[in-house]
Amino acid sequence: MSAGGEFESLEEILERHVPEAQLSEVKRILFGKEITKLLLPEEAIETAKECNFELKGYGFEAAPEQLRLPRKIRVGLIQNHIVLPTYAPILDQINAIHQRVGQMVEVAAMCDVNIICLQETWTMPFAFCTREKAPWTEFAESAEEGNTTRFCQELAKKYNMVIVSPILEREKLHNTIWNTAVVISNSGNVLGKTRKNHIPRIGDFNESTYYMEGDTGHTVFQTVFGKIAVNICYGRHHPLNWFMYSINGAEIIFNPSATVGALSEPMWPIEARNAAIANHCFTCAINRVGTETFKNEFTSGDGKKARNDFGHFYGSSYVAAPDGSRTPGLSRTRDGLLVVEMDLNLNRQISDIWSFKMTGRYAEYAEELSKAVQRDFKPNIVKEE
Amino acid sequence: MSAGGEFESLEEILERHVPEAQLSEVKRILFGKEITKLLLPEEAIETAKECNFELKGYGFEAAPEQLRLPRKIRVGLIQNHIVLPTYAPILDQINAIHQRVGQMVEVAAMCDVNIICLQETWTMPFAFCTREKAPWTEFAESAEEGNTTRFCQELAKKYNMVIVSPILEREKLHNTIWNTAVVISNSGNVLGKTRKNHIPRIGDFNESTYYMEGDTGHTVFQTVFGKIAVNICYGRHHPLNWFMYSINGAEIIFNPSATVGALSEPMWPIEARNAAIANHCFTCAINRVGTETFKNEFTSGDGKKARNDFGHFYGSSYVAAPDGSRTPGLSRTRDGLLVVEMDLNLNRQISDIWSFKMTGRYAEYAEELSKAVQRDFKPNIVKEE
């Protein structure tokens, strides 16, 4: 248990208690094919220790081929607490998180990470539970020219790294706010942005108080390291969302998220992993950590007393591979950087074995779904006469 | 370990070794909300023991509502070995399995099961790995008038039970063979049939040697106990398949399967469970057990020596609920009957909380998918200029 009474890590409990003789079978059934641990540079390990964040590295291998070279790249996932209290001046809060995440990106660079993804709305507390507009909308920035984008551009250039930077976006022209991931090329240029496609209305937790469903479709970003897409948070519950990114060619789909508590945690290891299997691609699930306390209390439409926090964000960021295997999760309580080496050749290799796209009958689904969304749709239900 | 060297059960290993203090958190993260064990009648427990099969019972509860009565029903899942050797006379093989499964259905009746689902092509060995047409196609029967359907009709009437009977179907008129589930009403009438929508071509394991993709779409069967659908085997890898059954109104989707070995087992706990979450419904995953040995050796296009078996079918049948929780699995090695009580009100309750259908944007997906299946589809890929 951590200081806060939160359970630290499922995988560590299993490693500690399940006898050697059964552990490999337990892990195979739960996590798939055994993956290798990466040897990370001493400097990175030391720096992570000094800066008090967890650093883990794993590698997914692919078989050698005759006509293609391996396409080994390294992906980094960052999960972190907010740094200052939620009532600190906004610019101080942003700068403190920039500094913290900057350290972590530096360690990622030491580990030769090529593409890094930060957590959802990473520059701010996840304040949408409060339903207050002020001061939280002040965290919104321009995707193209905001401070955070400029900060990431510097890092991207310095470290030759693609950075996926999910922020609260302010679109200046109409003052609209979006939940957006900015994709910054390793050249330092903004490659583009992609907006959260599905907006939660879970119980009374309704982010459409702040921003609506994204209008950027299922854009895939061609980077020099591979084709990536970003399925933000609640979109992970929608298999069609993952699917459509894959149909547009994504080799890695990131899922920067912010999710708490008992309701979603058993779903967390299932959804991104199912998407990796079903779409013959890698998926990267990222969740923030910690409990964020707000000055004003709020209720949550759940019959409970007003309170000042939304619950514990349980971290547990992980990467899933198309062959059904996955990395262990990062801690449920600590800041962390997960470095994962993957050979992108694995996607095609698994597709050639399992053939889900070939056997997908998509034309028929397009037709069925087109009928199903008509107002006069009659479901195909057989009854006894 | 079982006699055959196969690992018996993930859940039992965890129960045995993880300390009490951590076990509930481990189980919550892995399996979701704690579910209740059903008290099953002594007679059923005794008979299962005498007949040497595992009997387990669990219950998923829902909250009481003011305007709807609970809709509690009991579902039964049966997993079993073949009974006689694969070289025994065909009619003897079928009769022996009928007798065995008949015993198990009787125990299900003692447990007040309302709907039971048998495993894929339950009357026969899963001989499609041999690629021999004879004698295996002789196992095919008429869905409407075959011996197996008649056998199930008797059971259905006798026990007032809906029976989902997945068989190898022979369509007489054109001599075509299908992989079909026959749904028999508790009245004893054949309510209808539904054919396997996605046919595996995994490595060299190509069932389209025997039967092609089904032509029955996504039929849902309205029984007196609830609306059910059957997603046969390999269709579980296709999220669109589960989805379309749900769109047609399915409250419970059965997934009778036959799957072996290292490649699929880590996917097994993920796919049906993801479908239950994503579609706000119950899913029931059923896999046969045992290693089936054939007279003639065959290769599997995997560079290995010719052999006489396809590998170990690992059982592990389970039920998943829309709230992300699931039952433990049946054994990896033994015949078994899983009895699960579920309040179907849970589906709507979870849908009202999580709202995946409301937030699904299906009209937009219908449009995107319709474009994606066109020959001139241009994927939405952004590149640096």
Automatic annotation (TrEMBL), chains A, B:
Instruction: Please state what class of enzyme this protein is.
Output: hydrolase
This protein's major location comes to cytoplasm
- EC number(s) per entry: 3.5.1.6
Instruction: Please cite one Gene Ontology biological process associated with this protein.
Output: beta-alanine biosynthetic process via 3-ureidopropionate
Q: Where in the numbering of this chain does the CN hydrolase domain appear? A: 73-344
Pfam families according to UniProt: CN_hydrolase (PF00795)
UniProt keyword annotations, A-Z: Cytoplasm, Hydrolase, Phosphoprotein
SUPFAM superfamilies associated with the record: Carbon-nitrogen hydrolase (SSF56317)
Task: Please provide one cellular component term from the Gene Ontology annotations of this protein.
Answer: cytoplasm
- Kindly tell me the pathway this chain contributes to: Amino-acid biosynthesis; beta-alanine biosynthesis
On whether Hydrolase is a keyword of this UniProt record, the answer is: yes
Localization per Swiss-Prot or TrEMBL: Cytoplasm
Superkingdom of source:
Eukaryota
What start and end residues bound the annotated signal peptide?
A: none
The record's section on InterPro entries has:
Aliph_Amidase/BUP, C-N_Hydrolase, C-N_Hydrolase_sf
Q: Which is one GO molecular function term here?
A: beta-ureidopropionase activity
Family to which the UniProt record says this protein belongs: Belongs to the carbon-nitrogen hydrolase superfamily. BUP family.
Describe the function of this protein: Catalyzes a late step in pyrimidine degradation. Converts N-carbamoyl-beta-alanine (3-ureidopropanoate) into beta-alanine, ammonia and carbon dioxide. Likewise, converts N-carbamoyl-beta-aminoisobutyrate (3-ureidoisobutyrate) into beta-aminoisobutyrate, ammonia and carbon dioxide.
How it assembles, according to the record, is: Homodimer, homotetramer, homooctamer; can also form higher homooligomers.
Protein name, UniProt field: Beta-ureidopropionase
Q: Which organism is it from?
A: Cynoglossus semilaevis (Tongue sole)
